[in-house]
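User: what does the whole thing look like in 3D?
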Amino acid sequence: MNKKHWIVLCFLGLFILACKKDNPFKEEIEKFLGFQKPANFPDPGYNFANNPVTKEGFELGRALFYEPRLSRNNTITCGSCHIQSSAFTQHGHDVSHGIDDRLGTRNSPPIMNLAWNKAFMWGGGVYDLDLQPITPITTHEEMDENLENVLNKIRALPKYTAMFKSAFGTEEVTTARFMKALSQFMVMCVSSNSKYDKVMRKEAGAVFSADEQAGYILFKDKCASCHAEPLFTDGSFRNNGLGISPINDKGLYAATLMETDKYKFKVPSLRNLQYTAPYMHDGRFLSLAGVLEHYNSEVQATPNLDPVLDQNGKSGISLSEAQKAILTAFLNTLNDTDFINNKMLSEQ
Amino acid sequence: MITKEKIWKTVLLFSLILIITACSKKEDPAPEFQETNLAPLSVEFDNIVGERTLTFNNTGSPYKNAAGEAFTISRVQYFISNIKVTTEAGKTYTVNQDSSYFLIRGDDKATRFAKVKVPEGDYTSLTFTLGVDSLRSTMPIDKRTGVLDPAAGGGHEDGGMYWGWNNGYIFFKFEGNSAVISDDVNGDPTGKKQFKYHIGFFGGYNAPTLNNIKVISVDLRTAGIAKVRKDRQINIHLFVDIMKVFNGKNTFKIAEKPNVMFDDFTAKIAANFPEMFRHDHTEN
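Assistant: Here's the predicted 3D structure for the full assembly of 632 residues, as structure tokens:
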């Protein structure tokens, strides 16, 4: 072999190496990673041991999430009231807008970070994600269907029986499998790539601006006792002093019948506020400014008002205009564009 | 010398012994209580209404409660669970929990039997739960199969017994019609004059709340103990008097409470439940 031969061989070798490098990279993209806990999040509460997330289970869950047959007249999907571009809420609707143009009584909550959720619904009553979908499916104003019919409709479609087989081993469509598949999709709806998260994880030199930093300090002082980091909710039920609604929604009380639970609602996360207006359990505030003003001057001493909003003889949280501005700057760091644009979570 | 008298005495003695042995044979002594020596036992929940049998929608001859209100019945169904039997000596056997949930439905006679397996033995007491215990009410979806499947029976407007919004089961569902019900919001605005009693609440998922689970014990000694043996089908026949819902210790009027589901009054109605169950006889 002469010098030329060696050069050709070297080039060939380079090509081979280049090819080899390329292939695993492609595989990496296609590989389903399952549920992954973000580095700055606590351990999830969802029982993954009882329902490990698989690619097939997740894909089945996603198909079911966007399946109109879950509703009585095959018109409404879970995604109808939980729209990805609105961080899986129903943007622009104070209360959920369901089947036959019926209106519910509460604002559609986000499908987001549910693996860390201890209780579901604004007024509680549901404490297991695997049982949650029964509520919208059977509620008169939402999907107005019964579960037996839903399962029968799903069983009749070869697309689904094949997907159940891939996900669970046989074509059998049971309540447990149906619910577990939906849970597998929902727990994958993780929002953890906001600017806040990147700053906390010290990613690629992400830092808060001066206003955001000042807002963060103010947030920790005035808001974090209920909207605890990093999920921005402590998962508790509290009365935040909203005026009693015309329909007298008593919140958690309806599920527990305990006097001490009257007018308590679940503390919502503050993540993705930019996409999720309007705010509160009945969507009464159209803007963040409206919410901040509520805490500043509109908190009412209704039964069971949370003690943190009733200190030193004054209701609410005093906020100057300057404080509202920096707080808003901080809250805007909680918006996660990756989450609302993640193709994996979209209808396929 | 053997006298005639002595012969007679001997004969008499033998006869006596024979009779006694015969008797003790008939006595059929209870086998030794062994948890693995299982035999079938059925408990029959025979729904009645006061002095009458249960018939649905019998508008021609409606029932009448203690308050004098005429009514008909369109639905009666309830969960029976956690069946336990106890012998005279106090030995207790609890049926395996996974095989101990039954939905008794008034419209389907086949559902009136709760069929279980218990050790051979003579039982003087029967205990069961009306409703679904709190443990099962909080179990994962996999454990909610058969009558506990949230998809079973259609929605809660129909025969379904699962409350989606409150993670629990309706223990006792009783519906019917009465002319005394008003057509306004306090009665039945649809004009169907329907009453609905959906009684649930198992005590709360993580904080104690209203608990309407009733554990009911029936003494079998008066109307016949259950002699459970492998070669027989023993049936404990209970009467379940639906009228006691209205006429139990917390008597109430349909006109005043035509709909009871999600409020404290459910406890008043649930308090009447134990009175509904009466042991009529045992088929040994």
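In plain terms: Residues 4-27 of chain B form the longest helix (24 residues). Chain B touches chain A through 31 residues (CB under 8 Å).
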